[in-house]
Amino acid sequence: MLKKQYMKKLFATLVASSMVLAATGCGDTPKQSQIENTAASNSESIAVSSEAKSSSETEIVAEPDKLSVLVIDKYVEDFDTNYYTLALEKEANVDIEFVKVSSADFNQKLSLMINGGDELPDLVITPNMGSAYEYGSAGFFIPLNEYFNNPEAMPNFYEHVPEEDRASMIKAKITEDGNIYAAPAHSPSLVNQYYDSRVWINTEWLDKLGLDMPTTTEELYDVLVAFKTQDPNGNGLADEIPMVSANSGAFALKYLMNAFEYASNRNAYYMNVDENGNVYAAYTTEEWKNGLEYIKKLVSEDLFTALSFTQDNTSTKAMVQNPDICTVGIYGAGNYNSFNSASPTAYEPMAPVTGPEGVRWTSYSPIYAGTSGYLVITSDCDNVDAAVRLMDAFYDRDIFVIACLGEPEVDWTTNVPDGYVLAYAEGELTEPGYVILNNIWGSTNNKHWTKYGPTYLSLYDPLGPNGKGVDANDINTTADRMIGLNAEVCAGLYPKGQIVKLEHNAEDKTEYTDLHTAISTYVDESIVRFVTGDMPLSDWDSYIQELDKMGNDRYVELVQKAFNNSGLVTE
Amino acid sequence: MKAKRLAMNQNKTIKKVKARWQLYLFLLLPVIYFCLFEYVPMYGIQLAFKNFNARLGIWDSEWIGLDNFKRFFGSYYFERTIVNTLRISLYSLVVSSAMSIIFALALNSMPWEKYKKIVQMVTYMPHFISTVLIVGILNMLLNPSVGLYGTIYSAVTGIYTPPKDILGMAEAFPHLYVWSGIWQGLGWNSIIYISALAGVDTELHEAARIDGATRFKRVLHIDIPSIAPTIVTLLILKCGSVMSIGFEKAYLMQNNLNLTTSEIISTYSYKVSFSSTVTDFGLSTAIGLFNNVINLILLIIVNTISKRVSETSLW
Questions:
Q1: CB distance B143–A31 less than 8 Å?
Q2: pLDDT tens digits, one per residue of A45-80
Q3: Domains and CATH numbers, chain B
Q4: Cβ–Cβ of A522/B76 closer than 8 Å?
Q5: Which CATH superfamily is domain A196-364+502-566 in?
Q6: Best mutation site among A28, A227, A243, A324 for testing chain B: the one with the most B CBs within 10 Å?
Q7: What confidence tens digit (pLDDT) does each residue in A510-560 have?
Q8: CATH topology of domain A55-187+368-415+429-468
């Protein structure tokens, strides 16, 4: 009897516990069932008008063709009534039905739609899709070679993109199997070439303490000590943070390392190329070790705060933008973000310093067509002609200006008032061609899609860097001007050989991915552990041995191979 | 003879089912759930042994034998991720079970009903906060410069150089992980124990009180033995998920300085298979399968031991 009661109790607890387990979701692997059925809304058939098929490129057919397009739902109030949408629809004579996906999990959603066997929308437009080749070669996207090589199919592309850039854009999008699956975008920016090791210095503090802009690592050390000990913000407290960096310290780390050994950009991942075109790993050199030693000195004396390695960008920003009192001497960040701080104009870009061996580099990202902005036509598309027309419309110049700035004469104007010397074009600050009247960039609006999709911006475009124009309300303190100045002090300070793009052979790809994940994790971790003293530099030899064990030689070999395959060499 | 008895037994069973058909109807729902969402998807396990190609589908993709497993076992971080996973998992298993039991016992022996309810409510609320927010709160609290920890430190000591960064200490990671988890889950995890305690026979307590047993003695000799089967059952169940710790929290709390202790199986497999642009379903299935096989083995071992020692077991 007692036993029975006892079993009952046990059963009740079990039921309760299973309910709790179910509620908390004890399984961790994402289930296919969680996929939001985004494709459901576009399963309706697409009417193919026979006129559209027979039409030549000049004739406009009365009835617009229906197309479904997968887009990221970001910055746009309403895709259907958006000014840019209407311009595109008019140019291409299509009627677009949007399938919207949130930006955070766009790639996963697309991957699940494809792998889950859903019917795909006619086109997919995304700012960045690295997997066009994998899906394309598997037959989900159609090859676009014939359209991009045919001026009649792509009139706008041929009219508005100069031949030279056209060739490099097409070349950049040719995949391993010789096909083009994604429409290329070209948005070169002279200023963003020097993004990776951007560092800003508080010039008010320099003036106050009577210091010169540091030019060597020694001088930099002295300046940091002065910042720390001489109370430059004058509040009587030793609360100054001489140096801090966003992005897990990466900006400042690269800046400092560049005085010892070239620290290449994020895509090349510390793989350098010597004069003979041989790839080598920077993080195994003696110079790298010296760089670590120098950085370690700064970190151990609290000149370069170790917080940089653990805190997130929001906290770093909070430090720099402190509205009460300025506490930061030097900060590493990709953007000029000292606005709203106690000293909004104190910071200026800092030129690379020279190391003890005379090394002076800056991390460089070569201009290269087609790194962002993709449009693909899926194999589920029934009306390829209309899709190609829409694809081509993106390259139209008028439409492109709308894509960048919004509605003409409402959001921007070409009647530039006197006194504007702010756009950074042709390698120097010049008069802008466009002035923004109403700055909607980066905020939700109904005028454009924030330059999204396959677009073309020439290097010398009067639209200015990134096609963002110049804000009429923000004359002399723009971040753009500061970034332009940064580009000036960094110009040309990079080794001749650069890895622009890696093209792996299909059979090497998995091996490369595995090696890359393991090695890059280990190297990033080791850099931070070395400079914080968590791992003493006397362990350098065992660090090298560890890398050998992980297969670093093979890794370098694979990078060399992919580098040679790409055939892209910087001058 | 035997057949006849069997038939009679069957009749009996059918009769029993008919008599309580409502209960069986209730049972039908979970059965359908398990078939649909747990058993049917198992068909995808074959991906662990295949080179998945979406065009060909799950069934027609090419068999590659154990290549996916070899990739996982051969990876440099295999050992480290296993050790880290087990460390965090077992640590949190032991501490969180112990804490929830103690908490439930304490709450149960509290005489003031209203206060008890308030405490219970307050402690289980954090369960509903998302992991992302919890980690955000942790970061804000513990930031040595702009966080609460740093502010208090400089206010108390008068030193404005930030103190040592706890979030960057590898040895602190397991503690942060587990104790923040306890803060979040204590109330929720103790619900089962509290409900088990509610079922303890009050006559036993009365008898003990008459015999002069103190409150502590009553907890020790009545409450704990009464809920022992529940404790053991839950422990066994938890051992069945030792290898599968949630990925989000560890991933969000990671930085380059604590990676030696914070890289667990799920975060590593995410980095290898999902953060690359092309999702590698084969490898991630293989890792998931491996985890579950280990979990199953652990579950069976623990259950067998428990059966021998305490006569409580799942089956």
A1: no
A2: 333 333 444 444 444 456 889 999 999 888 888 999
A3: 62-310 (1.10.3720.10)
A4: yes
A5: Periplasmic binding protein-like II (3.40.190.10)
A6: A28
A7: 888 888 888 988 999 899 999 998 899 999 999 999 999 999 999 999 999
A8: D-Maltodextrin-Binding Protein; domain 2 (3.40.190)
